[in-house]
Amino acid sequence: MEDKFSHINKKNQPKMVNVGDKKITKRKATAKATMFLGEEIISHFNNDELITKKGPVFQTAIIAGIQAVKKTSELIPMCHPLLINGVDIDIEITDKEHIEILCTVAIEGKTGVEMEALTGANLAALTVYDMCKAISQKMVIKEVKLFEKSGGKSDIKNG
Questions:
Q1: Contacting residues for 33 by C-beta, under 8 A, at least 6 apart
Q2: Residue 70, number of CB atoms within 10 A of its CB
Q3: Beta-carbon-side half-sphere exposure of residue 55 (alpha carbons within 13 Å)
Q4: Which of 34, 75, 77, 82 has the fewest CB atoms below 10 angstroms from its CB?
Q5: Can you tell me the distance from the alpha carbon of 34 to that of 79, in angstroms, rounded to the nearest whole number?
């Protein structure tokens, strides 16, 4: 099993991968979350934003996503703490029922930022849910996936 999973040691116990010998490279990852809000919620938006009693929905979700990126190593046990160079989160209404959240994370480091991008997109979606649940609880976070990554061993694009 050690051959398949770098985070399992010879005794079949968990370990944190040693990245000490890896080269520092520019790395970037983008995760995409697709979310069903429904017409009832989308109809309340004005100029791509909805101001609720809790505040502006998309702005708050973006800030929550950025915070989540920075805390990923505290939430996912085998993730290394990283010095993040930048986080960019974009939330767009894609039709009368859906939104799309793109979370892009960039670093210069020895390990990738896929988990940070996925965590940021997830928490942004959860924050949208929290901000809009007073209007409707029929929302669905449909999909969260790695959209693309560059740097490290391989580049990936999952259009």
A1: 100, 101, 103, 121, 122, 124, 125, 141, 143, 144
A2: 16
A3: 10
A4: 77
A5: 24
In the chain, the amino acid numbered 24 is: I
- DSSP assigned state of 60: H
Judge whether 117 and 28 are in contact, CB under 8 Å: no
- Tell me the C-alpha distance between 135 and 137, whole Å: 7
Q: Is 52 strand, coil or helix? A: strand
Give the SS3 label for residue 21.
Answer: coil
Average confidence (pLDDT) per 10 residues, the chain, 159 residues: 70 85 92 97 92 92 98 95 97 97 96 96 98 96 96 81
What is residue 1's predicted lDDT score, i.e. its pLDDT? 41
Cα dihedral sign, 146-151-152-156: positive
DSSP state of 46: B
Query: Please, what's the b/e burial string for 87-107 (b: 16 or more CB within 10 A of its CB; e: otherwise)?
Result: bebebebeeeebbbbbbbbbb
Q: Give the residue among 33, 19, 17, 59 at the shortest CA–CA distance from 117.
A: 33
Residues annotated catalytic, as ranges: 130
In sequence order, the β-bridge partners of residue 104 are 30, 88
